[in-house]
Write a structure and sequence with these properties.
Strand order of the largest sheet of chain B: 6-7-8-3-9-10
Strand content of chain A: under 5%
Oligomer: heterodimer
Mean pLDDT of chain B: 93
Number of strands of chain A: 0
Distance between the termini of chain A: 40 Å
Distance between the termini of chain B: 54 Å
Strand content of chain B: 15-25%
Largest interface: A-B, 19 and 25 residues
Order of helices and strands of chain A: HHHHHHHHHHHHH
Number of helices of chain A: 13
Low-confidence stretches of chain B: none
Helix content of chain B: 25-40%
Helix content of chain A: over 70%
Number of strands of chain B: 10
Number of domains of chain A: 2
Largest sheet of chain A: none
Chain lengths: 267, 277
């Protein structure tokens, strides 16, 4: 799970994708998700997924992208198994049903891919700036950024508290599931209490520095759409249009019967 | 049987070498103070003593048992480690429960728990807070609860990581008295930056200076804490007593400077003045 989350962590690099306006990248992620949600056949979903691989390479985050996909495989497996079991229970697990289930899994991968490319190449500061300039209230943007900022702090504190309680004889990995869950109380209580305390302290420190004194905030950095951003936006819009057209105009054939037939001929 | 730290190296997963060949022996009844700049590896060393961290190279033996071959819970029974910040560990609804927590983990029988908790509440002056929430106490009281919650199981080796952090003078004196009371009966290892706190202990401890993951000096407090060169390498200020003697000597008064006690310094100065007059 942690490696899956790591796969979404921003990578500071210099690439065309990194330089793009964060709003354009957000538009890309949303458009990809819409396209993937629209299509339900295996073939277009595979194309949607594969089409994003070159983008990851363009953004110089190929390795992180691959790691995210690898880390999401257990969830893919979960989707496959639960759907297969449900369909089988309903009594119609034929080759077409299998293909539909496979399509679900690939759709999930397409979601992960677009979101991952977006977060891997967009710094939290840029994202918050984008939200701000899209009219989202500043306090929400700040909350979002603070949450990201304090995640590693919480992780560090959790480790210290775990050590402190183990030094008092707490054994975390002993006993059944319920007993084990109960043993996390000595870790969760200090963690939550400290988080609330820190939030208060931070609020006071920020108010001492006149946070929220003026209703209208200006930003030191102002996002400005450049030529390349407009080009990218056009490409995204065109892709979306094409995908909707394809969805409306074509009905995609099932792939598995062809594949099996081809294999059968060879055998 | 002692704790033996033998040429221990510790490398954190992110590649930081926190310990680079540390050797140290802590015998029964020893009083050892570990000092040094931030990032010297002091806390890392303390965590290897009860097996929270297993050495990357070298070994730590607690009464002959390799820490790599025992669980933290087994080792903690002998090596009681009190962390810097009580806020990282206090979680129970009452002080009484907080102190009993470790005893329950170690499987002490009920009446033994009750007896020991009574002793701890009395010893640490916490009787009136028995039913209070440990989270609502003052900084000094929290520190005492954390200390009590470890000493209650009577570990043979007591390890304290910066016990005076954020404590006022009165609280420090209370802590000193408590710690002094345990000296001799059990080994005490203490990490601190507070050089005056150390200088006022009687008996004086053995001082181990660390820097850059290594032990750079180890010896009697009177020798280590009055050596200007060593103190500079450990980012420590000379305590006020030897500093005063040193400045008097600069003015031509023939006095020794390897002294930490106010009384001894007074006698030396008077003797030197008498000799001069």
């Amino acid at each position: 799970m942690s490696s899956l989350l790591e796969g979404f962590a921003f990578q500071k690099k210099d690439s065309l994708l990194h330089r793009l306006d964060p709003r354009v990248k957000l538009a890309y992620a949303v458009a990809m998700m819409v396209i993937a949600a629209l299509h339900y056949a295996l073939l277009p979903l595979i194309i949607i997924f594969l089409a994003q691989v070159p983008l990851a390479l363009l953004g110089k985050v190929g390795r992180e992208f691959a790691r995210t996909i690898r880390a999401s495989l257990p969830l893919v497996l979960l989707i496959l198994v639960t759907n297969a079991l449900m369909t089988w229970y309903m009594g119609q697990l034929d080759i077409y049903a299998v293909e539909r289930i496979l399509a679900l899994a690939v759709r999930f991968l397409a979601f992960v891919a677009s979101f991952s490319i977006f977060t891997l190449t967009t710094s939290p500061d840029d994202l918050s700036l984008a939200l701000e300039q899209m009219g989202v209230p500043y306090s929400f943007c700040f909350m979002f950024r603070a949450a990201l900022r304090f995640t590693p702090v919480m992780a560090r504190e959790a480790r210290i508290t775990m050590d402190a309680q183990r030094a008092r004889g707490l054994e975390l990995d002993k006993g059944g599931l319920l007993a084990r869950a109960r043993r996390y109380i000595p870790i969760l209580v200090p963690l939550v209490v400290n988080a609330v305390r820190r939030a208060w302290a931070m609020a006071e420190a920020m108010e001492s520095r006149a946070w929220g004194a003026s209703g209208k905030r200006t930003s030191l950095y102002v996002l400005k759409m450049r030529e390349r951003d407009y080009v990218a936006l056009c490409v995204i819009f065109f892709s979306l249009l094409m995908a909707v057209y394809a969805y409306w105009r074509f009905s995609f054939p099932y792939l598995l019967p062809y594949i099996i037939a081809a294999l059968g001929v060879r055998a | 049987m002692p704790i033996e730290v033998r040429d221990v190296w510790y490398v954190y997963p992110n590649g930081v070498e926190a310990l680079r060949g540390v050797s140290l022996t802590i015998r029964e009844g020893d009083f050892v103070v570990v000092m040094g700049p931030n990032g010297a590896g002091k806390t890392t060393l303390m965590k290897t003593l009860n097996g929270l961290l297993k050495p990357t190279r070298g070994q730590v033996l607690v009464d002959g048992v390799d820490t790599r071959k025992a669980t933290v819970a087994e080792l903690a029974r002998k090596v009681g480690l009190v962390f810097q910040n009580p806020d990282h560990q206090l979680f129970c609804e009452t002080v009484e429960e907080e102190i009993a927590f470790a005893l329950k983990n170690f499987g002490f029988p009920e009446e033994e728990i009750a007896k020991r908790v009574e002793w701890a509440l009395r010893t640490f002056g916490l009787e009136e807070y028995r039913d209070s929430s440990p989270l609502a106490l003052s900084g000094g009281e929290k520190k005492r609860v954390a200390l009590a919650s470890v000493l209650v199981w009577d570990p043979k080796y007591l390890v304290l990581d910066e016990p005076t952090l954020g404590q006022d003078h009165a609280q420090k004196e209370v802590l000193r008295e408590l710690i002094s009371g345990f000296l001799g009966q059990r080994a005490v290892v203490m990490v601190t930056h507070d050089i005056e706190f150390v200088a006022d202990f009687r008996p004086l401890p053995r001082v181990v200076l660390m820097a850059g993951g290594r032990v750079i000096a180890s010896g009697r407090a009177e020798e280590v804490l009055t050596d200007p060169e060593l103190l500079a390498r450990a980012c420590l200020l000379r305590p006020q007593v030897p500093e005063t003697l040193y400045r008097l000597r600069e003015k031509g008064l023939p006095v020794r400077t390897d002294v930490l006690s106010v009384e001894e310094a007074r006698d030396i100065i008077l003797a030197a003045l008498g000799a001069g007059a």
